[in-house]
Amino acid sequence: MIDAIQSVGAFSTIRETEGAGPASSASLVMPGAGTAAPQAGSFAEVLGNMTTDAIRSMKSAEGTSLQAIRGEANTREVVDAVMSAEQSLQTAIAIRDKVVTAYLEIARMQI
């Protein structure tokens, strides 16, 4: 069931955003923290990793549900797995909505 989403993992291979400018290699410093944040990689890598984690979470929830049907998992494990998958899905939906909103704002700009 989740295998159809596997093609979304192809986004992690996009390398077009790497090295696009000085912002891609700069590390962020929080005011008052005094230490640099660790490098997170390119935007495409971050989205790819998040997509992979969400798919893994959904597959885990699906597997745990099937184990419960066979009597191999208790209700608590199923609820935990499904709630984790739901949280991952809600995060993916929120990010998608933000990207679409940003695209629409850019499209409305007058040149």
UniProtKB/TrEMBL annotation:
GO terms for molecular function: cytoskeletal motor activity; structural molecule activity. The keyword Nucleotidyltransferase does not apply. It comes from Sinorhizobium meliloti (strain SM11). Signal peptide: none annotated. One of its GO terms (biological process) is bacterial-type flagellum-dependent cell motility. InterPro entries: FliE. GO terms for cellular component: bacterial-type flagellum basal body. It is found in: Bacterial flagellum basal body. The keyword Iron does not apply. This is Flagellar hook-basal body complex protein FliE. Its main location: other. Belongs to the FliE family. Keywords: Bacterial flagellum, Cell projection, Cilium, Flagellum. It comes from the Bacteria. PANTHER family: FLAGELLAR HOOK-BASAL BODY COMPLEX PROTEIN FLIE (PTHR34653:SF1), PTHR34653.
